[in-house]
Amino acid sequence: MEQRSQWGTRIGFLLAAIGSAVGLGNIWRFPATAFENGGGAFFVPYLFALLTAGIPLLIMEYTIGHKYRSSSPRSFSKISKGMEWIGWWQVLISFVISTYYPIIIAWSIMYTYFSFGTKWGDDPTAFFVSDFLNKSDAGIFGSIVPSVLIPVIFVWIFVFFFLGRGVKKGIEFANRIFIPTLLIVFIIIVIRALTLPGAMEGLDAFFKPDWSRIMDGSVWIAAYGQIFFSLSIAFAIMITYASYLPKKSDITNNAFITGFANSSFELLAGIGVFAVLGFMATQTSQPVSEVVQSGVGLAFMVFPEIISQMPASSFFGVLFFGALVLAGISSMISISETYIAAVQEKFSISRGKALMFGGGLAFLASLLYANQGGLNLLDTVDYFINNYGVALAGLFEVVAIAWFAKGLRDLQTHADNISDIKLGIWWRISLGAITPVVLGFMMLQNLKTDLS
Ligand code: PFF
Ligand code: NA
User: What pTM value is reported for the model?
Assistant: First the structure.
């Protein structure tokens, strides 16, 4: 039998896990979420969620992967035959995300290029909506060369290249370069942002605590939601990555490091984004709260406008959009690895064949979004994946293991045997009670909003 691939070093695994975790969620989701949910006061539910759900779940997924040394579906089937589908559900979600993630990375590549000479002109919003999206939406079979198609293909070539080279020479190697680079880029951006006029007003708005929000249930839901998404939990990623760990690995310690590293990137991004928003508010004589945005609007409409107004704008633009590309590709590699590993094991085929088959299918599916209608499709798919797919995956996972398989003690023994920090009752309560209740509540809340 072919020997299971392994990470070259402990730091290699950590960088890959951090590479998966650190993504668009840190850069464009966290800052606005924190701001809208109590500012400085948000850090209380956020830290609570990190310690009662994020890190406990990371430990659980790392332990599952390490103990069963398999992709997510096979790991679950080893826990109990009837649970294999939970792994496939997670893999399916990752597959779907990997079909539209490349589009956003492709936009970031285009905008890295546009940064030279700020090609978005005087009205970046109009440029993005009318010029950029309309030009790039000529469709797969459109008569104009669809400009986003080329960077999308480029992203896939990258992904195939690194995944094709395997765990150590591909995934580990890529993250060894990407993550330190990303950290340096983040630090340069933050320093630059902090020295802009108005930066302090921005930080003031970001950190000012609104303690009145702390009893608000929706704030707590937002904190847990941010933690789940941001740590790439319940996507089959962390199980797959941990299955490549050597036998002797301190699981618990690795989970704490991953969790805190991801949050540090989040905090850093929050500081950078709000310093820049403070600058924007000053330039346009508006309150900071008027210019706060998240997601696509923040990255492709607000940021270009701010970048244009800054000295050395091209340089700053390349750094910002380059950071999106690096963060995006390392996450993209991790989601794609889940189904390649799963397909390879299920059908006992080579890694190369699994990559051709799984990656090829995802590549073809991603072309569906590279046109006008595709944009609406992307929004809809993204909404359902984030609001139902992932929450359900997390819920299935903890309920199956904690309640049905009664498997927490087994996993705890496994983790404790190889880890310095021993898991106590805190860990079992977090997974057996707190996490399922919060996830169940989150689902109901989403259903309520959607049905009303
Ligand atoms: N954890 C990533 C972030 O915070 O941006 C998002 C993510 C990456 C989600 C990969 C899902 C995934 F498969
Ligand atoms: Na993250």
Answer: 0.95
